[in-house]
Amino acid sequence: MADKVEFELVSPEKLLKSQPVDMVVVPGSEGDFGVLAGHSPMISTVRPGVIDVYEGDRVVDRVFVAGGFAEVTETRCTVLAEEAVALADLNRGAIEKTIKDLSEDSDDSKSEAERAAVEAKLAVARAKLDALGQSAAH
Q1: CATH topology of domain 5-87
Q2: pLDDT mean across residues, the chain
Q3: 30 CB contacts (<8 Å, ≥6 apart)?
Q4: Which residue, 28, 38, 56, 134, has most beta carbons within 10 Å?
Q5: Residue 33 pLDDT
Q6: Whole-prediction pTM value?
Q7: Alpha-carbon gap, residue 9 to 28, rounded angstroms
């Protein structure tokens, strides 16, 4: 087990994953980072994007996260996600409709705070769409 890293993915509702993996690649706010056993301890914010879970040299699981935090130790990578959904469960049509609706909401915003909240949701929806576009290439 010394060559594995324990990967945990936690959403506000529950523990979604807890499994030993060969590597996990996390969309950090400073760029994607890979975690292998023996990684230096660190904490990072997570931007909206896709976590890739590896067994050997293959991706065995892909999960979209809407942001959050990651804590890495020599033996563990824990991601506390604001929202997490399996990439396979994302629906392109529903996301495109959400983007259209949020764009209209942004145009109709009455205050800067309201606009900022809508723009944050819009950024997550666009990141989901980007993730679906990338998954076609994998």
Answers
A1: ATP Synthase; domain 1 (2.60.15)
A2: 90
A3: 44
A4: 28
A5: 97
A6: 0.84
A7: 14
